[in-house]
Each structure stands twice: as C-alpha cells, then as structure tokens.
Amino acid sequence: MRFTFDGRELRGEPGDTLAAALLRNDVRVVGRSVQLGRPRGIFTAGPEEPNALVRVGADPMLAATTVELYDGLEAWSLRGKGRVDPEAIDDRRCDKGYLHCDVLVVGGGPAGLAAAVAAGRLGARTILVDEQPRLGGDLLNSRLLLDGAPALDWVARLDLPGRVLTRTTAIGYYDHNYVVAVERRARGERLWHIRAREVVLATGAHERSLAFPGNDRPGVMLASAARTYANRYGVAPWRRAVVFACADSGYEAARDLAAAGVEIAAIVDPRPEALPPGALAELVATGGEGLLAELVSTGEDGLLAELVATGGVLTGQVVTGTTGDAEGVLTGVQVGSRHIEADLLAVAGGWNPAVHLFSQSQGRVRFDDHLQAFVPGTSAQRERSAGACRGLYGTRDAIADGYAAGAEAAERARSRPAAAGGSRGEGRVPECDERPVRAPTALWVVDGPSGEPAFADLHRDVTVADLARATGTGMRSVEHVKRYTTAGTGADQGKTSGAVVVGVMSALLGAAPGQVGTTTFRPPYVPVSFATLAGRDRGELSDPVRTTAMHDSHVARGAVFEDVGQWKRPWYFPQDGESMEEAVLRECRAARTDVAAMDASTLGKIDIRGADAGAFLDRIYTNMYSTLNVGACRYGVMCGADGMVLDDGTTTRLAEDHYLMTTTTGNAARVLDWLEEWHQTEWPGLEVSFTSVTDHWATVVVAGPRARRVVAAVAPGAVDLAFMRYVAADVLGVPGRVFRISFSGELAYEVNVPWAYGRALWEAVLGLGAVPYGTETMHVLRAEKGFAIVGQETDGTVTPQDLGMEWIVSRRKPDYVGKRSHARPDTARSDRKRLVGLLPDDPARLVEEGAQLVAADGVVPMGEGAELAAAEGGVPVEAGARLVAVEGRVPMVGHVTSSYRSAALGRTFCLALAKGVGPGDRLTAVSGDGTCPVTVVEPVFYDPGNARRDGEPLTGAPPRHAFEVRAESPAAAFAARFEAAGGARVRLREVPFEPMWEVRGADPGVGLRLGPDWWLVSGHVETRPGWVDVSGQRTILELSGPAAEDVLITGCPLDLHPDVFPGHAQTLLGKTGVILERRAPGSYRVYVRSSFTRYLAEWLLDAIDAI
Question: Where does the Aminomethyltransferase C-terminal domain start and stop, copy by copy (predicted)?
C-alpha cells in the first residue's frame, strides 16, 4: 500500500496502522512536542497514543496508532495540536443510529468475548462493541496458546450472539445505562446511541510508563506496544533493546522481541526477586543469548557476575536516563553508572485498568495496593466490570470472570435467574500457557544525574519539575494540579499520564496514591470530531419542511417561497423577470379588480366535537360560540392567561356538537396543545375532543370581485353562500367544504377538498383565470383593511383592546381565559400602545418595519388617565400633560409593525403600535436608513364601509370546467425512486389512498391505539358516528425486507425488538413525528402526515443509501 507522510512516499502492508507502517519504514521521529518542540516517536499501539498525532485528510488530529492504512493515504505530522485545512475535501458520511439491548458488552478481548457468549446463551439480547478491526483484544498482540493452539483459534470458534460492532469505541457512559459509541466506517463515522438494561465493561488495561530523565526520546516505547508491533504487524525495526520491567509483562515483551530478531541488551527489573524459575531458560531459548553477548562485550566482570547470579537480569536497579543522537533519537540507556547501547527502550511500568467508562457512569474507584492501580469499586448503575479492567490480568482469570459477568448481567436483565443446578451460560475456560503474574513494583518516578527532564505527561510536556512546582505552591488536590499544569488534558486524556501524575504527586507529598486520588474521567473516552457529533450536512433533511398538495405546481410556476413555521409557502409568483415589488403589485391588482387565488392549506384546522364543544369554546375565546348557528362562521381571538393575544382565526359550527377551528399557520400545534391542556387539567368534565385535520384538507382561497365566476365553475353549490357562512358541497365532483370568509376585504371563498385533490383544485382555479398570489400579497391586502396578524401586530404584550378590538371581548360571559388579566390596572390603562395607521409624507417612501416612532417636534401628547413619571426626577405627570424631550433624549412612543406598498392606494402605508396619539398627529419614524415623517390615521385604509365584500354579481352562464380531476397521493412523485432504491435487502413503497379515521372515546375494537381513548382506524371498515375522517391527513410508507430495521434505527429512538415493541407506537423518524406499525417480521408501515411526506421520503431514501 502506498502512502505519504509529510510528503514522503512510503509503503505499508494491508492491516497496518499508520504507526505500524511508519515503523516499517524506520520512521522514528513522527512529530514535535506541543510546548518544547522536542522530537517525539511512537509510544503506544492504541488510542492512548500521546505523541504520534497526525493530520489525515479533513481530520485535523488523529492518533497514528488508530489510523488504518489504506492505499493513497496522506498524513502530516503535527506539533501536538490539530490543524484544520480549510481546503480539505470532507466527503465523509457521518450518521447516527439507535440501539437497544439487554446486555451491552464493551470490549472484545477475552473477558468481553466470554461475557457476550454467556449472556447470549441465557437468551439475553446482546451487543458487543470493540474498538479494534478484529475481535480478540490483547490476544491479537500475543503469542499466547489456549488449549495448546494459538489464542485466536479460540476466538474464531466462539459463537457470538446478537450484534457485534467492531471498529466501534464506547466514548461516553451516561445515566440510565445510556452509552454513546462511535463506529469507524470507510465512508464516515456513525454515532450510536445505545440503551442497555445491563452493561458489562471489559475494557482491558493500559500499560503505564514512569517518569525518568529522557523518557520522551523517540525509541522509548511501552513494552506492550513493542510486543504488539512485533507480533501483530511483523514490524521490529530495532536492533538492540533494553526492557525496563517493573512488571512481568516486560519479560513477555523481551521474549517476543527476541523471537522477532531483536537483540535484548538488558532487562532492568527494579524488584529484588530473580526471574521466575525457568523464565531465563525460555528467554535464552528464544534468542535471549544476546544478553550474555552484551555482558561479554562490556568486559564488566562485576555486572557479569551480578547478572549471572540473578539469572541474567539486572534486578534491584532502574533506568536513570537515556542518550540520543543529533535528532534526539534513542542511542543508549543509562542504568545507574552503566550505559547500554540500544535503539529501543521498552518500558513495562505496570498496568492501569481502563476505568474511564466505569468512572463516567458515576462509579467510585479504589486503589489496590497489590496491583498498584485504581480499580472499580462501587458501581452506580446496572454495570459489572470484568477481566483486566478490574485487575484480573491473567487470560484464564479474565475469561472465567467474563463468563460470570455475562451470566449475571443476563439474569438481571431478563429478571429470571438460572435454575438451581442448571447452566448459567458459562463456557469452559481453556488451558493457557501463561505463568502466574507477580505484583508490579511501586515505582512512579526515577531521578537521574543527566539533567534531562523527566516527563509525566508526554502530550502536554508536563515534567516532574512542573508537578513539584505545583505541589510546592501548596496544591494538594490532583484536580488543582491538573489545571495548573494541564497534565491529563491532552488528546490521550491522561491515559498514559494520569497514573504517573498521581504516583509522582504521592512521592512529592509523602502520601499513598489512593490518598491522592484520581482526576475526573469525563466523556469522550477518545477524541471525537465535531463532524461525528454534529453529523454530515444533510441539506434539506437537516430540518423537516412541510409542503402542501400544490407544492409541485407552485414550483412549476416559479414561486419564490418563504418559511412559515415548518411550511414552505409561496411568497410571490414573479413573471417575466419581475422584481418582488412588481410581482406583488400585480397580484394585489388582480385581487382588487378581478380574481386571484392563494394556497391557504397551511392554516391550522382542528376538528372539535362533543356535547360541550360550544361551552368549551366560550371559555377559550373572548367571544361567544355556543350561540353560533349551525353553518355559520365567527372570527375569534384567544388569549393567554395573562390576557395577551395568543392566536386568532375563524371557527365554524358544522353541527350542533361539531365545530371546525382554524388557526394561524405558525400556531397550529401550539393551539392544539393549548386546547388539550385546558381540557385535561382544568375542565376534564367537559365532553369535547380535538383532532387535527390540517393536512387532511387542501384549501384554496378564491378572492376578488369576480370570484363568483370561478366558484360557480368548481363548486356551484356554494356560489350563493352568504358572508361568514359554510356549506358542504361537491368541489370538482369531490365532497368538499366551502366557507365564505375574507381576509382581504374582497369577495372571497375558502374552498376545501381532501389532500389528494388539492393540486387538481388549484390547477382548475388558475385555469379559470385566477391569478396566483403569495403570502406577501395576502399581507398587503389584510393590512389595507387594518386586519392585525398574530406575530406581526402582536408580540406577547398586546391585548385585543390594544388592537382596537374591544368589540370581540364579550361582556356577557362569566369567564374566559385571560378575563381576569384584562381587569388588571396595567392592561386597562389608557396610555397603552394601540393599533394605528401611518401615512409617510413621501408616498413612495417605504418605512422599515420595526422603525421607532417619536414625536416630530420632540413633544408627545399623553392620553387621558396617564400616570407616568417624567424622564427626570420621577415626578408624576398629570392627565393631558405633554412629555418633552430631556437633554436631547426623545421618548419613543411606538414602533412600525407592518409596512407595504399598495397598488390600491397608490402609495406606501404602515400599521403601528403607538401610545398617546390619534388621527392627525405627526410622528417621525426612525430606523437604520434615516428618518421619515409620518401622519397618524385610522388603521383601516381601504373600503372602511366594507362595500366590496360581496363583489360583482354573477351574470350569464358560469364557466364550465374541463379539467381532469385526478387524485394524487403525497408520495406519488417518489414511486420511481422508491422502486430504484429497493433490492433484496430492503424495499420501500407507498400505500396510497388508505381510508383513515381518528376515533375518540370508546374503544372501536379495531385500529391502532394512539393514547388514552384515542385510536387510528384504517382500511375498508364500517364507519361509526363521531369518527373523524383523516384519510388525507396521512399517507403510508411501507418498508420491508431483512434490512428494514437497519434503516429505521438510523432515525428512530424506539426499541423495535418484538419483546418490547408492542406492534405500533407514535415516535420520531428522522425529525418528524410518525406512527410506526410492525405488520410482520421485517415489514413496517410508517404513517406520516401528508405535509411531511416529501421530507420523510427523501430521508428514507437517504437512509437506504447508507446501508
């Protein structure tokens, strides 16, 4: 495999890590230290690497020990800090997914493998995650024999249950057994959110170093790392090695290095004991005679005698320094007064159980004096540590402990202990050729005469001297020392330095390491890119967009869209290169002089039923609805408990116990929640229910003096409809609803058909001569009539009275939401801002919305009853007084809420909220583009007498339509793409036009239960009174095949296992709400709102592409 490092072309082998490939090419210096710029080499073979940090592609900093080599890889060395290349092309696909299990096993070494097998044998749903490309843990790096055969043969024979995720690192362990893991894939990382009933941590242990002079030279390496490169990768570029064996694992490293052809110059063991019986013979048999060769060459009889007497090992001695060449690369090792030539110093300082995830779970660690390491103590969650991560370093011990941990976890998760005398899922523990392990020496720091710094943290360049300075200032807390020196804050998060820092502090303070304690282990366990956490840029899929049934028609007509809530609404329809201003003026003229049409499908629609529906609405709205006649419509305002305007809209009485409420587009969901909240918490005794039908009905507003001609053609049964009345009528031959409601002041009809016929209705209306108009024209038309719009004329501080709508607040009703707040002195005072109209002196000047209003001459008239304090001194102001600017400060009396250019008026105009002003008063509008003199007028600019509301009479025969009325399902446009994306593993299709009803109250005996007294019934069944037709509200997307669940778990947080998933549920898929139903194994139906279908279809296609 070809790759480059710092521009130099090199070659590696398949299966290499970048670190292994660099050693294969005899690259010793891989970077410079972050603070001191000292040369650094590869130190470890795993994610704990502090030195070999590189930039690869768009990743600004990775450990070379974790980067899998691929052909064409380009890597660049770093000086301890990542470097972002703005020009780098990042084509990774970073995704996420959700997993659930009974038992999660973290770690694929001997203990983890045994735990997974045991848990699976007891029937537990098991997930095994491991950071390596292959399972085996440390068995991958050793020449260990199990039952007389290579250890990996034992791994290959295991029958692992459940899901196995290799190249997956658990990075965080949070409350309620919530574990986050990162899976490395060729096309990008996947962030897994895992929920487990029980967790088995089999995370192994990290070999530790110790602090001695010159311990940072390239060529100084952990003994386990040198052993890994020799055994696993076949890389042993060193000529002569010294092994600093504070633990028996140093002897294993010496044996394996010697077998790989490396001459063992010396083994330095600080412990006074000699080698275990037979160990020297084994060492010599595998090439350790180099020891004796070195001794003879030195001619040092004393040293020879000592080594012979102790079995060929320097016992009771320590490494006191190193020497290097001009580049700083290791050339020799100092042992007391002796210098031994070597290009490798393999350090085996002992082992630190990887307690990081255990500690993140809020478990408490304790210090084990025998192991000289912190081990798991008291668990805080449903967790069990196993194997080396709890101090059991022997392979047989780890396997036995893993079997026990897996069985215990499965029994707790499944809540059924194994029968007495029965199998607990534990397998046979294989025989092993390992020797018993002796306790390591309690050695953390070594002094030396060289004057070279001894490093406690290689990545952060923290030395023993730095720690001495920190403790010398009086610091005793390891957390304080960490922050003072930055020890443990590097990319390895203290994996190679944490124990060393604690050990050095214990020596400096004269306290035991257990008394010093550890720093806090925080997620993530390894560095994680922001790209992985944030996910890739998914374009429109990053935020769900709702579209109407007419959306494709709008796009075809060149509509410019604006976002209203989650909806894409046509803003205006430019023609022939028109500017926005020109298009809006043309649309306004059409609505005022001829006929125009707008897609109003986005308005919220709530079906309200029940014997107490009228009484409930009386309490919610400020005006009366229980007295409304059947077939009549009424405009209403609802307020919050604070008396401020919450929403407005028209409500129609369809039958004695049946109403249809419309809301503003952006407040539809909020209002539905508002109704449910008051019903469930305050008035549960009222018999009333609410069903959203926003998506079920497609709505076209036909407005203008000649609107009757269009309506007569599409809905002849509604042509004679009176103002503020409703009729159920055929529309294009389809059962629909027509309302005579006007938000423009012109003759207007709101024509409703089920979603499937929305586009046909729209095309028919436009084909009859109606000019399409967008939301900007709608705003101009309503503002000309002085109609306030929620969210523009209101901001949460405006009452109906402030809008000049005292007439809509009933004085007859005993109560309604907000009534008491309307009686508060603050809301009743006369100097509140009120809705007014403004005319700029310059009729062509468009005042900026939000412009502040001040008096033209700095003097502001105050209304009756005003009780304000003057700007200076807090002196009360009498009613009728005038407030004058003080020291150049002009009081602000209001602000502009709406500002438009009117075709009907032939000029610009504004709506505003201002206090203490009336018609004829002069003000100045101040904004970023300067000042503009304006005159206050009444807020109704156009047709104040409502003479135009009835339009022109219908003369002659109405036009007849000749349009094809064809139903179109929400996902019809995706049929071909669904077919193309399908295959043997997964298939996607729409199930269109499925009849559906929402049912409240008694159990209908069929359908999907959505909540208390709430069902969705679908299919061809016999309907019953009170069922709400929602056939157009949703469509069904059917996902099937063996990989169907793999698609769903990338966006659905639910546990879909048959033992847990009841068959259906309301949930999120991607970022939209759906009803998910399992029809059969590997077959799911997704009920999605029609307006979200386009988003979800794209999301599913994208998810299918990812698997």
Answer: 833-943
CATH domain 94-206+352-413 topology = FAD/NAD(P)-binding domain (3.50.50)
Token pair of 59 as six digits? 């990743």
- For domain 603-692+798-828, give its CATH number from 3.90.1310.10, 3.40.50.300, 3.10.450.50, 3.30.70.1400: 3.30.70.1400
CB 414 within 8 A of CB 230: no
Instruction: Locate the domains of the chain by residue range.
Output: 1-84, 94-206+352-413, 211-283+304-348, 455-516, 546-585+696-717+728-764+772-785, 603-692+798-828, 831-861+884-943, 972-993+1031-1106
Q: Name residues whose C-beta falls within 8 Å of residue 882's C-beta, 6 or more positions apart in sequence.
A: 859, 860, 861, 862
HSE (side-chain half, CA atoms, 13 Å) at 517:
12
Which among 1102, 1078, 1057 has a CA at the least distance from the CA of 195?
1057
Please report, for residues 106, 669, 851, 1029, 1089, the alpha-carbon distance to residue 1076 in angstroms, rounded to integers and kept in the order given: 30, 21, 49, 20, 12
Do 318 and 212 meet the contact criterion of CB atoms below 8 Å apart?
Answer: yes
Name the helix (H) or strand (E) containing 358: helix 356-360
Number of Cβ within a 10 Å radius of residue 327: 10
Task: Measure the CA–CA gap between 249 and 138, rounded to whole angstroms.
Answer: 12
**Closest alpha carbon to 955 in 668, 721, 705:** 705
Over the range 47-72, which residues count as b (16 or more CB within 10 Å of their CB) and which as e? bbbbbbbbbbbbbbbbbbbbbebeee
What the block records as the tokens of 34 is 């972050």
Round the CA-based radius of gyration of the chain to a whole number and report it. Answer: 39
> In CATH, what class is 831-861+884-943?
mainly beta
Question: The whole model's pTM is what?
Answer: 0.88
Contact 266, 340 (CB under 8 A): yes
CATH of 211-283+304-348, one of 2.30.30.110, 3.30.565.10, 3.50.50.60, 3.30.70.980: 3.50.50.60
Alpha-carbon distance values, 205 to 17, 46, 736 (Å): 20, 11, 71
> What pLDDT does residue 276 have?
54
Class of domain 972-993+1031-1106: alpha beta
Which stretches of the chain score pLDDT less than 50? 277, 283-311, 419-422, 860-886
C-alpha closest to that of 449 among 338, 350, 577, 321: 321
The phi-psi region of residue 26 (left if phi > 0; otherwise alpha if psi is between -120 and 50; otherwise beta) is: left
CATH class of residue range 1-84: alpha beta
What letter would DSSP give residue 800?
Answer: T
List C-alpha distances in Å: 349 to 51, 241, 247, 440.
18, 16, 6, 8
- CA-nearest of 737, 716, 741 to 727 is 737
Q: How many CB atoms lie within 10 A of CB 879?
A: 12
Q: Is the Cα dihedral 396, 397, 398, 403 positive or negative? A: positive
φ, ψ dihedrals at 1065, nearest 5°: -165, 155
CATH entry, 546-585+696-717+728-764+772-785, from 3.30.1360.120, 3.20.20.370, 3.40.50.2000, 3.30.200.20 = 3.30.1360.120
Q: Which fold has domain 455-516?
A: Arc Repressor Mutant, subunit A (1.10.10)
Whether the link from the prior residue into 237 is cis, omega within 30° of 0, is no
Q: 551: Cβ–Cβ under 8 A, 6 or more apart, which residues?
A: 568, 1094
Q: How far apart are CA 613 and CA 653, in angstroms?
A: 10
Tokens representing 412?
């707790």
Q: How far apart are CA 593 and CA 596, in angstroms?
A: 9
Q: How far apart are CA 376 and CA 360, in angstroms?
A: 11
- Which amino acid type is present at position 817? V
